Amino acid sequence: MNKNPKRINHPIPPVFDENSEILILGSFPSVKSREQGFFYGHPQNRFWKVTAAVFEEEVPVSIEEKRAFLLRNHTALWDVIESCEIEGSADSSIKNVKVNDLSKILKNNRISLLFVNGKTAENLYNKYVFPNLGKECVCLPSTSPANAAWSLEKLIGAWKIIRSDNK
Predict the structure, then answer these.
(1) Residue 100 domain-assigned (yes or no)
(2) Average pLDDT over residues 50-74
(3) CA atoms of 7 and 143, how far apart (whole Å)
(4) Per the domain annotation, does 92 fall within a domain?
(5) What is the pLDDT of residues 4-38, one digit of tens each?
(6) pTM for the full model?
(7) 20 to 30 A from 58, CA-CA: which of 73, 126, 150, 160?
(8) 6 found inside a domain
(9) Tens digit of pLDDT for each residue in 101-127?
């Protein structure tokens, strides 16, 4: 294990537009996501399967399909952390956090619901973002493969809350 984790800057720009109604925040991109240059790039992460099921669409595959899927469903996506020290993809190793400035997403759209993907994102949001922003978040169960206690079906059921029409 590396005793001196390297400081890494978030390499992926947020996905949002003026029609975004909900914002989903993760903690920080995994190694696979950083390599691919887009969110939830690890093949075992269930984010795209879960959100596709919630919005009753096919699972998007390419980055272009994923971006179009999010915008079509009025969903903004980013992470709490702008830069940090991290070992591999382990959220538990995150240190020396600098948070993203969410105001660039929140000021020119219709976002009324803010969700976080998992407890680490929730803890980071509540510690670093909430005191300044004052906007509550709703914690959803993590789509990470590390959250093996949650089956795909259970995740889909819990994540249905993100639909503004609550189908």
Answers:
(1) yes
(2) 98
(3) 25
(4) yes
(5) 667 899 999 999 999 999 999 999 999 999 999 99
(6) 0.93
(7) 150
(8) no
(9) 998 899 888 898 999 999 999 999 999
Q: Is residue 2 part of a domain?
A: no
Choosing from 4, 9, 19, 45, the catalytic residue is: 45
Kindly report the CATH number assigned to the domain that includes residue 132: 3.40.470.10
CA dist 78 and 58 (Å) reads: 22
Looking at residue 78, the DSSP 8-state letter turns out to be E
Range of the domain at 102: 16-160
DSSP 40-90: S-STT--HHHHHHHHTT-PPP-SHHHHHHHHHHTTEEEEESEEEEE-STT-
Active-site residue 45, yes or no?
yes
Q: Helix or strand or coil: residue 119?
A: helix
Dihedral-angle region of residue 85 (phi above 0 means left; psi in -120 to 50 means alpha; beta otherwise): beta
Selected residue with higher pLDDT from 93 and 68 = 68
